[in-house]
Task: structure prediction
Amino acid sequence: MDELVRSTISAAALAVVFTVLAGKHIIADYVLQSSWMAYGKQRRQDWLAPLAAHAGCHAVLTTAIALAATPRLWWLGIIDFLVHSTIDRCKSLVTAAHQWTPEHRWFWWSIGID
Result:
């Protein structure tokens, strides 16, 4: 029981972690994502390299945050890479299947689902 108590996190610390990770997400999705990544990851062919580069930005930033905050959680960068690349690829496939364009409401909803 004593270990459980020591491994808990305060609400304030949790809020800081979520805020930092949300900021990281904005930076990786909007500041660091080039048009090559954004358009390339949505192609039907030759999508792997741009998607990997984009998900890699997320992974590197998540790893840096984890190392700064709690080094034993370094592996979160790998999880972020896998989850983010899977979500982005699935979004691309669904958007293509429905032929959503910026004129469609669901296109914009799909942008925010990650």
